[in-house]
Amino acid sequence: MTYTSAIIDLDGTVYRGESLVENAAEGVQAVRQAGLSTLFVTNKPIDRRETYCEKLNALGIECSSDDIITSATAAADYLSAQYPEREIYVIGEDALAAELRAAGLKTTTDPERAGTVIASLDFGFDYQTLQDALIALTENDALFVATNPDRTCPVDDGEIPDAAGMIGAIEGVTGQELDQLIGKPSNVILQMALERVGGEPDRCLMIGDRLETDIRMGNQAGMETVLPLTGVTSTADLAESEVRADHVVTDLSELAAIVADEG
To answer: Are 151 and 162 in contact (CB under 8 A)?
Structure first.
């Protein structure tokens, strides 16, 4: 198979916390040297694209802001296209609200004004936030969207709770399920990513460490999927999951052989 593009996850695939994953820079370089168009796609919405770009450059991986899609930028693009007039109650970090406002959207801290509630990883999530979400969703009939469904996020010394905790709490209290998921594995961020890299899905590699987001999205789209055992997925997880990757690798050093194989 001759590949023309690659979509690459960040947390747990390229780095963990502030540390570069071993052989990650070499793996990305091998993909680029093989002529593939590359795009980094992360479900993590707690920083602006520019911050992720600066981090990658500091870790030795050349990057510009156009090389990255985050679940926050995807949410901003989706909501500005579909619901541009709705004020948004943001459950998330400042970077998410900043991305929404940069797209021309209005945010509000008043649940009675909210036409949309967006849920994401929020380090300040508390009882008042939950009460506000209840008001917006049940009394104001707001749209309920979320940046990403990840249960945990890999960091230097383990994992931390991710957006699934906030989404689950809101769904449990309101009895309402998400109207739209934005990040991986949703079709929303998938189509944005494919449009950016160009080419056909079956000639695109999806490279990421999480079965239920990265690999599921790649499989649904007909991509060739690569799962490095550098993040949240263990060999035990592989045995228990119904989601299967086309390639399971120790780290990204094995990408050179994959992109070189045109059989």
So the answer is: yes
The pTM for the full model equals 0.95
Residue 262: the pLDDT is: 57
Catalytic center residues? 9, 11
pLDDT along the chain (263 residues), means of 10: 94 94 98 98 96 97 96 98 98 98 98 98 98 97 97 87 97 97 98 94 98 98 98 95 98 97 61
Give the contacts of 115 (CB within 8 A, at least 6 positions apart): 83, 85, 86, 87, 88, 140, 142, 143
Within 8 A by CB and 6+ apart from 124, the residues are none
> Token pair of 64, please?
């510009």
Q: How many CA atoms lie within 13 A of 151 on its CB side?
A: 5
Assign 3-class secondary structure to the chain: CCCCEEEECCECCCEECCEECCCHHHHHHHHHHCCCEEEEEECCCCCCHHHHHHHHHHCCCCCCHHHEEEHHHHHHHHHHHHCCCCCEEEECCHHHHHHHHHCCCCEECCCCCCCEEEECCCCCCCHHHHHHHHHHHHHCCCEEEECCCCCEEEECCEEEECHHHHHHHHHHHHCCCCCEECCCCCHHHHHHHHHHHCCCHHHEEEECCCHHHHHHHHHHHCCEEEEECCCCCCHHHHHHCCCCCCEEECCHHHHHHHHHCCC
All structural domains of the chain, each given as residue ranges with its CATH number in brackets, are: 5-43+184-260 (3.40.50.1000), 73-181 (3.40.50.1000)
